[in-house]
Design a protein that fits this description.
288 residues; mainly alpha
């Protein structure tokens, strides 16, 4: 049985009431401090909410401008079959590239610090590489890789494009190092393929063996296997003649010996017989 409570225990205040009462006394004694602290907390919450809303609005505006810049790259050229009557077109590819570059640069400068600005920087590198400005593409791609988040969806493409930009400038050792970074992005097949491709480009004797090994070790990477096989076929072709050289005659190409030159006939080598001088007419005898 539970012990019966005596009158003294019943008259004692409840423990919760005691704690609540002491808390109220502390709050009343420090009312001003409580108000200040509460106001600071509310202000901090309001500032955090306002900053978040401002960032969201800024990202949305930057994203809209980026979408417009990317749309320029897909517009058709005047006169192309794909151009629709009501679609805006560009007079040439050069004009379209200039407009797209200007729009992407505007996103990068006006919306710095946003994800859209980082994406615009990568797109600038891609477009400059496509138009042949490898040095400028290298600068933009290196800037993107240095500042973009590790999980940015364009990081892989930017890393491989950086290798192509360096290769286009003849910096093959730097290009090889850039391609090797694909391994750190969980793309060992692409890294090995690019290493074998550069070896083939440099004329290394084991380049074909490297390509065959890539095709064998990564059977599930269909794109890698296809490209490796294409490179193997190219490696099997005879080397192209140096520029400016004269191609051999058709008979020599087939492995045939050129026909020997015919000697002139003996009749043609005989000297012509000089014609005889005409006989003199006999002179008439003089009459005595």
């Amino acid at each position: 049985m539970a012990e019966k409570l005596d009158r003294k225990q019943l008259r004692r205040p409840d423990e919760f009431q005691v704690v609540a009462g002491k808390t109220m006394e502390w709050l009343v004694a420090r009312q001003r401090l409580v108000i200040l602290v509460g106001g600071a907390v509310v202000l901090a919450i309001a500032l955090a909410w306002g900053l978040s809303a401002w960032r969201s609005s800024r990202e949305a505006k930057a994203g809209a401008d980026l979408a417009q810049a990317l749309e320029l790259q897909s517009r058709p050229i005047a006169g192309e079959p794909s151009a629709q009557p009501a679609t805006e077109t560009f007079p040439s590819k050069d004009e379209r590239n200039k407009a797209a570059l200007a729009a992407l640069e505007k996103v990068r400068t006006e919306h710095g610090g946003t994800t859209a600005a980082q994406t615009a920087l990568a797109e600038l590198g891609f477009l400059k590489l496509k138009t042949g400005d490898a040095a400028a593409a290298q600068k933009d791609l290196e800037g993107f890789l240095a500042g973009a988040a590790k999980d940015h969806p364009l990081r892989v493409f930017a890393q491989e494009s950086l290798g192509y930009a360096l290769e286009a400038q003849g910096k093959l050792d730097d290009a090889r190092a850039a391609f090797e970074q694909l391994r750190t992005l969980d793309l060992p097949a692409r890294a090995d393929l690019q290493a074998a491709r550069l070896a083939l480009l440099q004329g290394k004797p084991d380049a074909k063996a490297q390509l065959e090994r890539v095709a064998k070790e990564y059977p599930k990477e269909q794109d890698v296997v296809r490209e490796a096989n294409e490179r193997i076929e190219l490696a099997s072709l005879p080397p192209a003649p140096p520029p400016g050289s004269t191609p051999p005659p058709a008979a020599e190409k087939a492995g045939e010996k050129p026909a020997a030159a015919t000697k002139p006939s003996s009749a043609s080598t005989k000297k012509p017989v000089p014609a005889k001088a005409p006989a003199k007419k006999p002179q008439a005898k003089k009459k005595k």
